[in-house]
Amino acid sequence: MNSGFPGAQSPARLVKVLRLLARHHVQGLSIAELTTQSGLDRSTARRLLMVLAQTGYAAKDAASGRYRLGVEAMLTGLAAMAKPPIFEVCHPVMVSVARRSGDTVFLIIRVGDFAHCLHVQPGSTVLHAHSLMAGQIRLLGQGTASLALAASLRDAELEQIYQRRRLDYEAAGISQERLMDMVRQTRKRGHSLSVNLLTSGATGVGLAIEFQAPDLAHAGPTAHTAAISVANHDAQMDAAHQVLALQILREELLQAGIALVAALKTGPPR
Description:
Radius of gyration: 20 Å
Oligomer: single chain
Structural class: alpha+beta
Distance between the termini: 26 Å
CATH architecture of the largest domain: 2-Layer Sandwich
Strand content: 15-25%
Number of helices: 11
Largest sheet: 7 strands, antiparallel
CATH class of the largest domain: Alpha Beta
């Protein structure tokens, strides 16, 4: 576990433990599971976990004994949301796509079991809907970009998310069968397509994208997933315009050096 920086092995291990906690925040991790997944010996994993717990970046669930992210981790994440790194990369793309297509463009990231709207870039034809506000949280699969995100996940993970949020999905009129069918169609198509899925009278197309973040534990970048969608009123977003909007979006992403999620180009994740 060479970080590539002299003397940085311990910080790299700490970052690795913190990242594992983030990936398993909902269900939590036991010390045994953390040991297995991190590749650390039990005493090292426990020591690093105690450091995170003492500083508020991890917390132990009293009922289950499992560890999750703590309050300080939440506050750190909220601070980053004020100026998320991915926004700096994607904003110029969104501006160009909105200008060239005339459509409204959305940037969505995954936050646990949900999709979070980071930014909305209006086009020349403005969509007026409460659901379009930046900062809103929606279910994975509910909305065009959110559906692209859902399609990038493994089936087993998506099914677990549905079971945890079953009441929310059912309240939104989305059965597990419908969600999985939408995901399969998205993977087959290579992009998401929604008609009146979140906003009445609107149609959208979307792509899942990858962005890189440094990973000290592996001495290289780690890929994370986000999604960008383009939407307009049904009358404007006919089949021909959908093709045009996707072409413009792909061109702008390519020019910016932003990669598409490979799973949507090659089939469902294994």
